[in-house]
Amino acid sequence: IMGSTGAGKTSFINNVTGQTLPVGHELDSCTKDIREVRFKRGKRNVVLVDTPGFGDSSMSDAEVLRLIAKHLAGTKLTGIIYMHRISDSKVEGGTRRNYKMFHQLCGSDHLQQVAIVTTWWDKVDFITADSREKTLKTGETLFKPMLDHNATMMRHDGTPTRAKDIVDHFLRLERMVLKIQSQLVLDKMSLPVTDAGSVINTDLLNDARRCVDRLAAVQDELR
Question: What's the total number of domains in the chain?
Answer without folding.
Answer: 1
